[in-house]
Amino acid sequence: MPRSTRRMVASLLPTSLSVFVDTVVRVLAHTQIRKTGLSQKKAHLMEMQVNGGSIPDRVEFAHGLFNMPVKVSSVFEQDECVDVIAVTKAHGFEGVTHRWGTKKLQRKTHKGLRKVACIGASFEGHVLGSPCWSKYISSLSFLPFQTYH
């Protein structure tokens, strides 16, 4: 480990329990993507929680894992249940052809092909929310309430 990293880690290690506010110790780990033979260059990041023992023991255990390869078999067992939380990517503002799978209009259409030809009656004064609309596709679209606009 480089000297600057050792100094930084030493400054993070607590001298007494009064320093701790949280009781959770987590470790950021990444894969060694070059050893997999994939064309991808960016490593996968994973945050793992360290459980068991007192808080200084957890910090010391996590400190001992710096720059050390950790095998999956040392972290997980066969047929072990694991809680997984992931963040999905948003798709941004998407049109009706992508969102609803509508057919594209014919080539001679005025002002765009990837639209819906008819979205409702013109005499009602407003259009219901049920027809196909283009909209922002967020990663939060699974929530029961709308958190984005």
From TrEMBL:
Keyword Signal: no
GO molecular function annotation: RNA binding; structural constituent of ribosome
Listed GO CC annotations: cytosolic large ribosomal subunit
Keyword Ribosomal protein: yes
GO biological process assignments: translation
UniProt KW keywords: Ribonucleoprotein, Ribosomal protein
Domain of life where this protein originates: Eukaryota
Similarity-based family: Belongs to the universal ribosomal protein uL3 family.
Name the UniProt record assigns to this protein: Translation protein
Lineage: Eukaryota, Fungi, Dikarya, Basidiomycota, Agaricomycotina
